[in-house]
Amino acid sequence: MSERALHDPFTRLDRQREADRLGMLLFLGSEVMLFGGLFAAAMVLRLQHSHDYIAASKEMHYWLGGINTAVLLTSSALVAGALEATRAGRARLSGWLLGFAIALGLAFLAIKGTEYAIEWREGVVPRFSDAKLHGGPHELFMVLYFCATGLHALHVTGGLTLLGMMIWPKGAARAEREATTLGNVALYWHLVDLIWIFLYPTLYLAR
Amino acid sequence: MSRRTSQDAIPDTREERASYLNAGQGLGSWLLTHDHKRIALLYLISITFFFAVAGCAAALIRADLLTPEADLLSNEGYNRAFSLHGIIMVWFFLIPSIPNVFGNFLIPLMIGARDVAFPRLNLASWYIFMAGGLLTLAIVVMGGVDTGWTFYTPYSSTYSNAYVIGALAAVFISGFSSILTGLNFIVTVHKCRAPGMTWGRLPLFVWSHYATSVIFVLATPVLSITLLLVALERIFGVGIFDPALGGDPLLFQHLFWFYSHPAVYIMVLPAMGVVTELITAAAHKRVFGYWFIAGSSIAIAVIGFLVWGHHMFVAGQSPYASAVFSFLSIVVAVPSAIKVYNWTATLHKGEILLDGPFLFALAFIGLFVVGGLTGLMLAMLAIDVHVHDTYFVVAHFHYIMVGGTVSAFFGALHYWWPKITGRLHSDLWSRVSAILIFGGFNMTFFPQFLLGYEGMPRRYHVYDPSFQVLNVMSSVGASILGLGYLLPLTYLLWSLRYGKPAGPNPWGATGLEWSVASPPPKHNFETIPLVATGPYRYPLEADAPDEGEGEKEAERV
Ligand SMILES: [Cu+2]
Fold first, then answer.
1. Do B229 and A41 touch (CB under 8 A)?
2. Which residue from A38, A126, A137 is facing B238, i.e. has the nearest CB?
3. Ordered domains of chain A (ranges, CATH)
């Protein structure tokens, strides 16, 4: 995607860049609405089964979630750094920063996977290993948890793929164009981060 | 169209002239095209096909309702017929109809651009749409779904034993097509306008598509996540919406209608844009209240997001919430009424030409007003309790969606047909079909208001014999309506071969799309036009600067 130069409806490169950016922002808007449905479901659950919701939330491994929050935030900061490095023409530095950011993204997925495995062993996975679920609302909470974090993990995977595509093809001549594309990919990565920042308190810290 | 056609000299060399239609040969040049005009035609062909399929389902329904007994379809079969009718009509015809065909074809032409902002994404959006559509067809062949187009839980998640997952997946997939199209249109309008094409000079068709696109981008993902949750509930038996497991069935309705009420405006806003263009062209007059019409499109899109609760007045929603939703639903009628008043004022003292497209526009206004006013009745809490889930509701939304949107779709098809194909069609026949459609439509759906008011519930095919007379009227009307829809298929296709070649501007209308040849060249404009005036500057002779508000605006670079 990075090798596209000026394409059809556009006659000026800056206008085309603005269009790419606006397109990405709109896409992020639709992503927010996608998760909005899940947050609405969480809100209804919290209001209707307030006590059970808090009890269920207290059983979450909030320190694993907490570590993951730190991991993802750091990754986001590194991508922002990589973008600045690309803009400053320091391609090698940018590559390193992106590499670390991707590594942290993978670490996020690994920690998330570990957490899922622990929950499996604890018997709180609805319909699969649900020995320790106490009642409907707890089950509902866990369904919501797996839906929301699972969908988020898919977005993390997508973001990592995009970041990976940014790290590979390098061409000094296209540095400027690259900065635009990386800027859009970075926006996406920040959104993935942002969604997690809202998911974490909603699911882990309800008191 | 006689009066205005004479203004245009039709080039004899038309057959040899290069256009987007002969810019590439073979199926591959169509299926891999990035040209917004060709993609629009791909959509036109596909949605016409889906319209026919869903129309057949409607024919089955109306045939079955001729008698009070169940003689044509089984109970199961009837459920499946109306479900497929609804699902295909809503998601595979009405929602993509005007935006994806005419929006795609016209927005770049109207704003002076060579294409939409993301041409490849535009093509991808058609493929996604077709994937969803073909999956739906596969489900039809396998036996269909019986949940109705609304997929209400817990029926869809627990009790139905039809192919619900497949249908959910099909609608889910087609949603991405909507999101990408909306995104593409918004960026196109923001970033691809020709020099001098300020926001105040945009044709109102573009404004209404802009508002529609906002709904596409912001409402569709809510439907996606809702359908995903229903599918999870159905596959794994977990109770997100199932009260037996602690879930909340009302939550489904909230999420579903948060999308589906704005979706009504996805269907009707582009139609309003079309009608504005048809009315000004027929009246040959400047549009009355440009900013009111543009602003009302945005107002409808915004307020349309806040009224979804009017679908749950009798579903156990808090009465305070219902009161607020009732109020907001009445409020959203104001911008719609503004449009109707402005169209009427535009026609006032115009030199009106009673051509086919104008008759379709008039049909839209008449039917939309009836649909809108009965919508106001339904927004009142007390009346809604009485007529909820009756044929009154069915008649109401068919007046908006079929009477309104489909009439506008046919109006657009007739009005821009010469631009799209380069051929003139028979004006006499287009007037005949407009009148047939208007008459047939009223005969089909007006009796349903009476049926509903007298208490005939929707979704039943065995009914009290006292309702038979009105039901037979409705079915007879439906056959006239069907004829009205078939007729254009014949004379429009006939015009492709035998129609007279069209000049660039057969209607003598304003707008950049009429400044290029018919059919337009592959890249729309040889040189990107420089826009110096606002839209609808009638009469055409007065192109010299006059008292208009257009010139005072700052040039956009
Ligand atoms: Cu509604």
1. yes
2. A126
3. 2-204 (1.20.120.80)
